[in-house]
Design a protein that fits this description.
Blueprint (H helix, E strand, L loop, with lengths): L2 E5 L5 E5 L4 H10 L7 E4 L5 H13 L1 E6 L2 E6 L6 E2 L1 H4 L9 H8 L1 E5 L12 H9 L3 E5 L2 E5 L8 E3 L5 H11 L5 E5 L5 H12 L3 E3 L5 E5 L8 E3 L4 H13 L3 E5 L7 H9 L3 E4 L3 E5 L9 E2 L11 H8 L5 E5 L9 H6 L4 E5 L2 E5 L8 E3 L3 H13 L3 E5 L11 H7 L3 E5 L2
Parallel strand pairs: 2-15, 3-14, 6-7, 10-11, 18-19, 22-23
Antiparallel strand pairs: 1-23, 1-24, 3-5, 4-5, 7-9, 8-9, 11-13, 12-13, 15-17, 16-17, 19-21, 20-21
The structure holds ligand EPZ.
Ligand EPZ binds next to helix 1, helix 5, helix 6 and helix 12.
Length: 418
């Protein structure tokens, strides 16, 4: 089992390039199932979740090959309609295979994805949407079985919550439905817009992606596409916070500053200097770091995927900050690990209070989930002394070349087999 070793206290300086977005690349890879024509997807990050998705596509009947950061997908054989447990259990986003299979084969059996450490992660909103599109659903033997023998039909889908995945699953199926599909209370994340842009390139008729109301007029057939995935805003936010927590100054290249508005605004209000150009963000520590309360929310609110990283930063801020998590029911697994660095954090339900301390001390810690792992890396970079981080395989799901990028910025970090 790999571990990551950090000797903290180094200011991060220099520049790095952000990789393509994990949470955009995954649904776009699944979109390849909607056509028999070849597709080429560029700027795909090198991540475990991308490899899992490629494995799933190849199991179903595609031939997907990744060379560098480009994935080419061609059709090889008639699709299977079953996505098995041993593949689905590795990645919750596998549920996004349901929409395209249902649209193309009129049936899909997908192993129940199960929860993860940050929450039970139900799929009721996805299943409600497929029912609205005319599908019948049964759950047995650990599989969700969906059927639409007459194909999917247009309807209005009113989400009780703007689920990112459910919005993507509807986009990935309604594009081949008969008639008009309207999603009310759709998710507005940039990854939704990126997926919609791909579907429109394929010949789909979509209006309103990126707003809370999306209208899709179904079409009969979709064609291949070439597309470059948008930059990963969560990776970018992580490096912005890494710069602040180590009192450094870093130019972060290949980003969409507008996707990071809330993060930049929050860092500025803590006293960090932020300057933007069209596709770079320059982050610089000046003379202090004030505490700042945050409440996570759906886009464009403060991203839940940056909550853990923000908590790490607040451990060294002047004053007390309150962090409220409104999206997942159990996304504070990093609290106990941050306390091992000497952080002063008290948790109460979906809120934590962080009292800033003068310094953190390196410690042996364990990663529970992807973004909690990012928080531990940040704390280790800022802490005095040595930090040993175990279960780093969680990090490999969402951060492309993490150690290399941090080493480029001057961090004393390495992966070991200890
Ligand atoms: C996506 O997950 C992201 N994953 C998550 O990023 C991100 O945290 C999340 O959106 C919120 O922004 C990918 O894009 C691959 P949701 P998703 O459906 O689609 C509840 C990361 O670190 N819910 O918007 O699963 C759910 O339990 C990952 O990169 C239902 O109740 O998020 C959660 O509390 C972690 N029923 C909330 O909604 C449903 O049917 C948000 O879920 C679906 C969701």
């Amino acid at each position: 089992m790999d571990k990551i070793l950090i000797h903290g206290g180094k200011q991060l300086k220099g520049e790095i390039k952000i990789s393509g977005s994990k949470n955009s690349a995954l649904p776009i890879l699944f979109a390849s199932l909607l056509t028999d024509e070849p597709v080429i997807i560029k700027n795909v990050p090198s991540l475990a979740d991308v490899d899992t998705t490629i494995g799933l596509l190849n199991f179903i009947g595609k031939k997907a090959i990744k060379k560098g950061h480009t994935v080419k997908v061609i059709s090889k054989q008639k699709y299977k309609h079953i996505a098995p447990y041993d593949l689905v259990r590795k990645m919750r986003a596998s549920i996004l295979i349901m929409g395209p299979l249902l649209a193309r084969l009129k049936k899909a059996y997908v192993s129940l994805p199960g929860g993860c450490t940050i929450g039970s992660r139900p799929i009721d909103i996805h299943l409600y949407a497929f029912k609205q599109l005319g599908a019948e659903i049964s759950i047995n033997e650990g599989y969700v079985k969906t059927f639409a023998k007459n194909g999917l039909k247009g309807n209005v889908i009113h989400f009780k919550f703007p689920s990112v995945g459910a919005t993507e699953n509807v986009l990935l199926s309604a594009v081949l439905a008969e008639g008009k599909v309207t999603i009310i209370n759709a998710a507005r994340e940039p990854e939704i817009e990126d997926l919609a842009n791909v579907l429109v390139k394929m010949g789909a008729n979509i209006a309103g992606a990126g707003t809370n109301k999306i209208i899709i007029n179904g079409t009969k057939k979709l064609k291949g596409f070439v597309h470059s995935v948008i930059p990963d805003r969560i990776e970018a936010a992580t490096y912005m916070i890494a710069t602040a927590i180590t009192k450094g100054h870093v130019t972060i290249k290949n980003v969409e500053p507008k996707h990071l508005y809330t993060i930049s605004k929050s860092l500025k209000s803590c006293g960090i200097t932020i300057k933007e150009t069209q596709n770079t963000i320059f982050v610089k520590w000046t003379k202090y770091l004030k505490s700042k309360n945050i409440v996570t929310g759906v886009y464009p609110g403060f991203p839940t995927d940056v909550q853990a990283q923000w908590m790490a930063l607040m451990c060294l801020a002047k004053g007390t900050s309150k962090i409220t998590e409104t999206i997942f029911e159990n996304r504070f697994m990093h609290v106990s690990e941050l306390q091992r660095f000497g952080a002063n954090i008290t948790a109460n339900g979906n809120e934590v209070l962080v009292r800033g301390v003068k310094k953190l001390s390196g410690a042996p810690v364990m990663v529970s989930d992807l973004r909690a792992g990012a928080a531990l890396i940040l704390a280790g970079l800022a802490a005095e002394g040595k930090t040993v981080i175990s279960r780093v395989y969680h990090l490999d799901r969402g951060y492309d070349a993490l150690e290399t990028k941090l080493k480029t910025l001057g961090a004393n970090i390495k992966r070991t087999k200890i």
